[in-house]
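Work package 3, deliverable 3.1, input record:
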Amino acid sequence: MSLAPTSDQPLYQQLADSFAEAIHQGTLKPGKRLPAIRRVAQSHQVSVNTVLNAWQMLEDRGLIEARPQSGYYVRGVLPAVTRHGQHKTRVRDPSSSKLDLIDKVFAAQNHPDYTNISLACPQDSELFPAARIARITASLLRRDPNMIGRYALPPGSERLREEIARRALHAGQTLTADEITLTHGCMEALQLALRAVTQPGDCVGLESPTYFFLFPLLASLGLKALEIPTDPQHGLSLDALEMLLQEQRIKALIAMPSAQNPLGCGMSLENKKRLAKLVNTYHVPLIEDGLYDELQFDWPLSPAVKAFDRDGWVIYCTSFTKTVAPDFRIGWTAAGRFHDAIARLKAVSSMAESALLSETLAEFLASGGYDHHLRTLRRRYAANLDEARGLIARYFPEGTRATLPRGGFVFWVELPGGVNTTEMFDRLLQEQICVTPGALYSLSERYNHALRLSCCYPFDARYTRAIQRAGEMACELAGVPCGEAQGVPLRPQTV
Amino acid sequence: MSLAPTSDQPLYQQLADSFAEAIHQGTLKPGKRLPAIRRVAQSHQVSVNTVLNAWQMLEDRGLIEARPQSGYYVRGVLPAVTRHGQHKTRVRDPSSSKLDLIDKVFAAQNHPDYTNISLACPQDSELFPAARIARITASLLRRDPNMIGRYALPPGSERLREEIARRALHAGQTLTADEITLTHGCMEALQLALRAVTQPGDCVGLESPTYFFLFPLLASLGLKALEIPTDPQHGLSLDALEMLLQEQRIKALIAMPSAQNPLGCGMSLENKKRLAKLVNTYHVPLIEDGLYDELQFDWPLSPAVKAFDRDGWVIYCTSFTKTVAPDFRIGWTAAGRFHDAIARLKAVSSMAESALLSETLAEFLASGGYDHHLRTLRRRYAANLDEARGLIARYFPEGTRATLPRGGFVFWVELPGGVNTTEMFDRLLQEQICVTPGALYSLSERYNHALRLSCCYPFDARYTRAIQRAGEMACELAGVPCGEAQGVPLRPQTV
């Protein structure tokens, strides 16, 4: 175990991170007692309080547990997903069979009767300040019903853009309201960004695995995809990226550097700085998808790559759909040197965003309840992820690996024994349980044994039962006996 | 004067149309008494009641006036804009100077301090049922605040799509909810339609003059424009179109057949049927922009070309932004054979529309207040147009021509004496008055002497004064003495 201090993170967090990594990599095995607090303080030359804070953090993240009169112990965890050794980079057009599979899974995910354990759309209304937002909307309407009768023109609500700029400052981005374009969710921000910086036939670099809706989006714009190796823990491989940039093989790059979908991984601060430098040096725009940035578990939040964007080559895209009001679909982009082009594209593509919804969000952001709400969400998702990983450990075949997300609410599971998750998807669908097979997340077939799961659902019997059934199905397909579902005692976890 | 009866219109309307045309063409001059009602009934072989209804219609449209004890007289009107003899069809890329001018005018139009007499965005909140809509929204939020916390997924509100289908039936379109895709306003519908049916480099047929935002939209998609002669009264030239279709020179066509922007013209029922047949025969998609269809002045409304679409080659696009709730930006498309492609494009381009706003509209449509509201709007706009044309007649140079719209709230004015309206725009802007110069509505320079004006504003002293100033400026640029603005008595109108 080695501490890799960075000047931007508090000491206790660095300490917690290094122990988390040791646990995750199996250096510290489940059931093992952690060294005494005073010894750790001495050996790492930090105060006792720093160690206590670090332990608190590890406990919050479900990695260790306190046993009265005895000390701290490592909890049972899933082995980490490791980077695949082989990764052939190949420029691809999405095949129609791949796009059909995406259509099919997307349709299934939206089916109201299915139990969904993988869709990245929180369906638990407690996860949003709905009543508060509803009150603000109703109050705005009372004060000025005529708001509805005014035509929404670009660039849209100045107040919301000012609030966004104010908040972005906290996250290391120095923006003004004029640099922000409101969009119809993050999806439109990505779409406009791609249209602004590419021509049909161009090749776009993507993380691998990546958000699956990017494939039909690229296909709709006549763009080719080049998937870049992405570490399940540390994110995009910058060495591979630099090679591609040197060889001028991509015209743009889309990445989620802080809390990636589907892996949940985040890049280190150093890597973010290097990424910003790379795209500014090679003049290749980075479309930074920051959809889950405010749901990072570490505090203070790791800044966006955009924070280190020297000459405006980073197009930052995000939205309030995952944190405040999914139904409003208000997103935004800060597009640097591409601002004018994107603002113009937005106007001719869908004009502007609703003032009623924008002003509601502005009022919510201004009134100071957002940070409190975000803290609640982060705690909730971190706890949910831990519980969900616990269920996977319990019901899935031995050798199942999973990522440990740094934020958000999705994670990535890789199954042993040649299990084909597309087959698993088909069979689970007959039981009205919906998962997303790994095949969706790449144009290659390299993730056919993986699943993305999501824990933005209420942790009720239905959800638990669905995970259990998925685990049983996986055991069956892997040809190994099932776990406690059949009354067999809980398998000891290999870590 | 000749009656051109069509079996689909009531007799009194045919009669009114033929007299309107006679007035408009100058066969019946201002101040002239109309023939006695009984004589007209005899000569046209209709009942006295039919003639009375027709006169009522002409009076409503401001073309004639009743003088007690004396009969009906033709009112003073502007001469009609006639079709330009010369129209060179040329495939064009929008020049950057043209796009810059569009940007400049658009920015000026949105300036809150300017008096706008040309923007097609009703700013008079009385024109919308804002209070009613606000009550519906507030009530939905009270019943289910969690609506805000649910992720908006395609295809979006079934209830709204059902209401749209139900209403479309009245307008001759047999649609089901499943054939309708909700969009972020009509602009997004047009954008998605173009992306679904064209490839970069393709050529798209447009009316001339046409909605100016189509030029930057086409440019953003790498599409070329071919402007097709369009009669200021009867709309798109189908002979010219058929030639282009035969020669396979366009890949798609965008048109507003019922109430065109900027001319206000509408095609006859025969021409609509022929247009539908042409695009179905030549397999070239028609993107039918029906934005002002429900604001047609004639009743019953003339059906959309989509109503005669045999094999699904018509993509009907429209929105509620001009009639119910501009701020909501909810539009829709019924895309025939392109439905699946457009639904998929919508999902990857901006996902879906807000359930809160969609359900509000659905409730408003279902509750039966919409038709009443539309009747009020039609009466109001018809009266506004008449008043505005009266002001033009009063203050603009002799020889000024104007269109007589069949619906909506914009009309087209052509100035005599080589007046350059772009220069006029620049000079009026210094007085904080905003008009849209004709140069915007074509990639050619053939409308440099024209203006589009709009009467979706309150008819107050500010609006009147702005029109008067525009007229004075036009007189000055044309080198003719000003009208009554300078205390000179009102010029007699040449018709």
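Confidence is low (pLDDT under 50) at residues 1-5, 485-495 of chain B.
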